[in-house]
Amino acid sequence: MPTLRRKVADLDSRFVTISSYNGEEFDLAIKFGSGVPKMIVPLNSTAHLNRLCHGGWKVGESIRLGMNDRGVWIDLILEKERPELRTEGKVIGIDRGFRKAFVTSDEQEIGADLPDLIKQKDKRSKTSHHHVRTELFRALKQLRLDGVKTVVLEDLRYIKRGTRGKFSRHVNRLLSFWSTARAVERLRQRCEELGISVIIVSPYKTSQRCSLCGKIDSKNRKGEKFQCVRYGYEDCADHNAAENLEFLGLAGIYSFRLLQTS
Fold first, then answer.
1. Quick one: residue 56, left, alpha or beta (phi over 0 = left, psi -120 to 50 = alpha)?
2. Domain ranges in the chain?
3. pLDDT tens digit sequence for 113-122
4. How far apart are CA 115 and CA 138, in angstroms?
């Protein structure tokens, strides 16, 4: 049997109306009108939807209607007024590692237990990536952002460019499972909801620079351990890199390369 091609359409208030349901069994009703067959789809609010609504979100006037091999599905589109950007608070750097998804300059670790979960999963399983990504997004909710006005992230879009053969199969698998772009997009969404600015900087030498004295040397980092060859300062390599990102954000500098050439 041939696979049904996935089809998706966004329908706004010209085609659908979302309102309370005139009955006792359901909470909402989606009424289809102009341009599509007239029908009413009743639905109940879920615990997740109720939490979002209590957090200031509201059900919009549009829906996303789709169809795949499993049938027809409907996504509600939620809306929330964008808050003003915070003008007071601290700046934190967030390093994205291979064994820990996120490490912050204020010593938070996100997703440290996920590599063990990845090892248990079959790479060819259709549900593996979805499950790990779901767990990563759940872990991201634990990131404390109270009192933070700016988050500084590395630009890792080209992390694997020109490095063919340099990453082990284990690291490649972690990078694949991390779904880095999606995780960062989820973090961006959370920051936007809270009024936190996001700054993207270059990863150039952030893992080799000593955040204490500024010495840049490839010998400073050995795996997950960082030890400055100049003064012997020791730290977790990911935390040291996060502190360097915080420095770039505070200084308003995109890359340490600019400091070396100035």
1. left
2. 7-79, 90-261
3. 776 666 666 5
4. 15
Q: How far apart are CA 98 and CA 172, in angstroms?
A: 9
Kindly give, in sequence order, each residue whose CB lies less than 8 Å from that of residue 184, ignoring residues fewer than 6 positions away: 96, 153
User: Residue 114 is encoded by which pair of tokens?
Assistant: 């996920």
Residues near 257 by beta carbon (within 8 Å), at least 6 away in sequence:
202, 204, 205
- Give dist(CA 32, CA 40) in Å, integer: 6
**Spatial contact of 204 and 257, defined as CB atoms under 8 Å apart:** yes
Task: State how far the alpha carbon of 70 is from the alpha carbons of 73, 126, 151, 230, 237, in Å.
Answer: 9, 15, 40, 61, 45
| 8 Å CB contact between 178 and 136 | yes
Cα–Cα distance measured from residue 238 to residue 123, given in angstroms and rounded to the nearest whole number: 26
Angle, CA of 249, 250 and 255, to the nearest 5°: 45
- Tell me the mean pLDDT in the region 237-248: 96
User: With contact defined as beta carbons under 8 Å apart, do 256 and 204 qualify?
Assistant: yes
219: confidence class by pLDDT, cuts 50, 70, 90: very high
Placement of tokens 């064994």 in the chain: 99
- Mode of pairing for the β-strands spanning 102-104 and 109-110: antiparallel
Tokens matching residue 120: 């248990």
Cβ–Cβ < 8 Å for 226, 237? yes
Cβ atoms of 183 and 154 within 8 Å: the answer is no
